[in-house]
Write a structure and sequence with these properties.
Blueprint: H1 2-18, E1 50-53, E2 57-61, E3 74-81, E4 90-91, E5 96-100, E6 105-114, E7 123-130, H2 135-138, E8 197-199, E9 202-206, E10 212-216, E11 222-226, E12 247-251, E13 254-260, E14 265-270, E15 287-289, E16 315-317, E17 320-322
Parallel strand pairs: 1-7
Antiparallel strand pairs: 2-5, 3-6, 4-5, 6-7, 8-9, 9-10, 10-11, 12-13, 13-14, 14-15, 16-17
């Protein structure tokens, strides 16, 4: 009881002092404005520079833009420069937009993002538009690797000569890449046997679990990952989870990655963003069921993991995609 009374007396004294009683001076007013909360400025990333064919619709992807505070971002794309006779404009909104490159030359696009407080510094992307190209016919001649065997001859040869017998001993590791398969701890992995494609400075590869990745060949940073989750349908009975690679094509200038999955699907992805192509497949989800209308014994009762094996790489022959 004495302790309670003592506290009441102390509170009364404090109240009198705060009101100016018991002396000529008063306490300074309390600061009703809380200290400002620091905000991390977001970072814009409009993707890598691109090469495109005249008349094509080019995808721009800002999905790697980031905010350290985890705030949602708004995207501001601006067409800064275009050829003199071009009528190109940016279509769409958000992290993925498009631009119809109607004339030869350079198109310069800036991306800025806002986290609700601050604008990011601008990230600039350049699209060099050319008249035409045939990646498969050119093969590895320009330092690329556009299909599984390198070129249509299938000789797995690259004419690049910066690395030779005189300097190979001086090579050192520039970057290491971590497969997203490492995060799938509930499944037993087999081996990484994919041959990456190399197109316009981007490596495209598949993983043992039928995931697709795009990697910046200069820095080793992952640009995007697409996970069709085919591993949920079971482990292939022969060699387990294995995948050899993906296929790349440009149809009417649209850059496309094709993947045959371990659960018998053929998936088409936008090579710039990794998003499924809505124009591919009857359901508009970028996927085709390769087992549809294929006769097989006890199809309704046989588990998929008892009948499928590691998928082959799609072979693009004209407008027909062959898988086996």
């Amino acid at each position: 009881m004495k302790y309670a009374l003592k506290n009441l007396e102390l509170a009364a004294v404090m109240l009198m002092v705060g009101c100016g009683g018991g002396g000529s001076s008063s306490a300074p007013p309390a600061d009703i404005n809380p200290p400002p909360v620091s905000n991390n400025v977001p970072v814009a990333d409009g993707g890598l520079d691109q090469v495109a064919i005249q008349g094509s619709v080019v995808t721009l992807y800002g999905g790697r833009s980031a905010d350290a505070d985890g705030d949602s971002l708004t995207f501001d794309w601006s067409l800064i420069e275009r050829p003199a006779d071009s009528f190109a404009t940016i279509g769409g909104a958000g992290k993925t937009v498009t631009i119809n490159v109607d004339e030869l030359g350079a198109y310069v696009i800036d991306l800025s993002v806002n986290d609700g407080v601050d604008d990011s510094p601008v990230d600039r992307v350049t699209i060099d538009v050319i008249l035409s190209r045939s990646l498969l016919a050119d093969g590895t001649a320009n330092g690329m690797w556009p299909n599984y065997l390198g070129n249509l001859s299938g000789n797995k040869y690259s004419p690049l000569d910066q690395i030779n017998e005189n300097n190979v001993a001086d090579l050192h590791v520039v970057w290491r890449w971590r497969s997203p398969d490492n995060d799938l701890t509930a499944f037993q992995n087999s081996a990484f046997e994919a041959t990456p494609l190399m197109i316009d400075g981007v490596l495209y590869a598949s993983t043992s679990f039928s995931q697709v990745v795009a990697i910046d060949a200069v820095t080793g940073e992952t640009l995007w990952i697409h996970d069709p989750q085919s591993y949920n349908y079971g482990r292939p009975p022969n060699n387990g989870f294995l995948h050899r690679g993906v296929a790349y094509a440009e149809h009417d200038g649209v850059k496309t990655i094709y993947l045959a999955t371990g659960d018998a699907r053929l998936i088409a992805l936008n090579a710039v963003s990794g998003e499924p192509l809505e124009t591919f497949g009857s359901l508009g989800n970028g996927s085709v069921d390769l087992l549809e209308d294929v006769p097989r014994l006890n199809a309704s009762t046989t588990p998929l993991d008892d009948v499928h094996d590691q998928p082959d790489i799609p072979d693009l022959a004209g407008v027909v995609t062959q898988v086996g």
